[in-house]
Amino acid sequence: MNARYRRAVIARGHFPTEQAALKVLYLVTRGMDPKGTGQARWAMRWKPALNAFAVTFADRMPAAENL
């Protein structure tokens, strides 16, 4: 996961706000399912990260409550 985050941040360059950076990390995390089918084995990879984001940035990620 760290390699994917690093690649996304390097490709983007800079972020105007912290929210923009968080959105990119969120989208990269959601995009780790290669087939887009939501298979359980892939969900195990990104679910802990989404939970950590939801706890840390609860006020900034209202959509996290619906996951």
TrEMBL record:
In terms of domain of life, where is this protein from? Bacteria
Entries under InterPro entries matching the protein:
Transposase_mutator
The Gene Ontology terms for molecular function here are: DNA binding; transposase activity
rRNA-binding among keywords: no
One Pfam entry for this protein is Transposase_mut
GO BP of this protein: DNA transposition
Q: Which UniProt keywords apply?
A: DNA recombination, DNA-binding, Transposition
Which family is this sequence assigned to? Answer: Belongs to the transposase mutator family.
User: Tell me, what does this protein do in biology?
Assistant: Required for the transposition of the insertion element.
Q: What is this protein called?
A: Transposase
